[in-house]
Specification:
alpha/beta, Rossmann fold, 8-stranded mixed beta sheet, 3-stranded antiparallel beta sheet, globular, binds S-adenosylmethionine, binds zinc ion
Length: 282
């Protein structure tokens, strides 16, 4: 029953591999299946569950996904989005393939695909809640559950751009799946990011100043940076936006909803400060 295969997933059948035995996957009713019989359900919401029988160590819960969906739809991060899209456009050939690692709700991947007709996109994330959104984010965006710390269910050298936006990283797997001409694009916060919120909410996770150096050390055996853009600006923030911004960060795990909504003073503006870097494989 091929009609059950989400249209965005079909172009990825050549790129996906069985996570158990590395064989090709074929559609089989409401699942993907390899010749050995390893079977992976396609959820009603349109993403394929490749992470079966494995409990992921991390991933956003429903409340975090809701907060992220609400906040990103305000457009407050639009300059970050634009910078990422421009970098991706510069790196992609026509009919290119983008894989977004830790894609969350699929917001960034959808924006990239919107600007780049002919491009196909795949979002990977451990969070089923996030994937429900990601699978619907764009007609050319497929979505699958996967844990970035495990070998990716993808062929060698089949991807033109790997995106990693505020998400965990696996440099050796990024390198394996990218074509030699491909690019890894990493967006990450630096010290001043959301400083006003961090000032008000001590439980918020701080950004370790050594983090940037650790990132470069981890990537260095596999990648060389070709271009970095510092995106920094101040954006106004409503109270709900401030609550969502905290609710969608890892800090949310340490804070109860009452902590947030009962919080008296929240900043009415906040600094956004991120680096976007394009890396070429060594
Ligand atoms: C801070 S969010 C960023 C989401 C999205 N890239 C964005 O910027 O809107 C981090 C994402 O990584 C996912 N994640 C956490 N641990 C992961 C893992 N081990 N493998 C894959 N995804 C993971 C979370 O579920 C979450 O969607
Ligand atoms: Zn198999």
């Amino acid at each position: 029953m091929p009609a059950l295969l989400p249209p965005a997933l079909e172009p990825f059948l050549d790129l996906l591999r069985c996570p158990v035995c590395r064989a090709r996957l074929r559609p089989d009713r409401v699942s993907l299946r390899c010749p050995e019989g390893h079977t992976f359900d396609i959820a009603r919401q349109g993403y394929v569950s490749l992470l079966t029988g494995i409990r992921a160590t991390s991933g956003d819960d429903a409340a975090m996904v809701q907060a992220r969906n609400r906040f990103l739809s305000t457009g407050r991060y639009a300059p970050v989005h634009q910078s990422l899209t421009r970098m991706t456009a510069d790196a992609l050939p026509a009919q290119g393939t983008v894989v977004d690692i830790g894609c969350g709700t699929g917001h960034y991947l959808a924006g990239v695909l919107d600007q780049l007709p002919g491009t196909r996109g795949l979002g990977l994330d451990t969070s089923a809640r996030a994937l429900r959104s990601a699978a619907r984010a764009h007609p050319r965006a497929a979505a699958a559950s996967w844990d970035v710390f495990r070998p990716f269910p993808l062929v060698d050298q089949g991807v033109d751009v790997v995106l990693d936006v505020f998400a965990p990283r696996n440099p050796s797997e990024f390198h394996r799946v990218l074509r030699p001409t491909g690019r890894l694009i990493v967006v990450r916060p630096i010290e001043r990011h959301l400083a006003e919120l961090r000032g008000q909410i001590p439980a918020m996770v701080t950004i370790d100043p050594d983090k940037e150096q650790r990132l470069q050390q981890a990537l260095d055996p596999y990648f060389q940076a070709t271009r970095t853009q510092h995106v920094e600006y101040t954006t106004p923030l409503t109270r709900q936006e401030a609550i969502d911004l905290v609710g969608m960060t890892p800090s949310a795990r340490h804070l109860t909803h009452a902590d947030l909504s009962g919080h008296g003073s929240l900043p009415s503006q906040v600094t956004v400060s991120v680096l976007a870097t394009s890396y070429q494989p060594r």
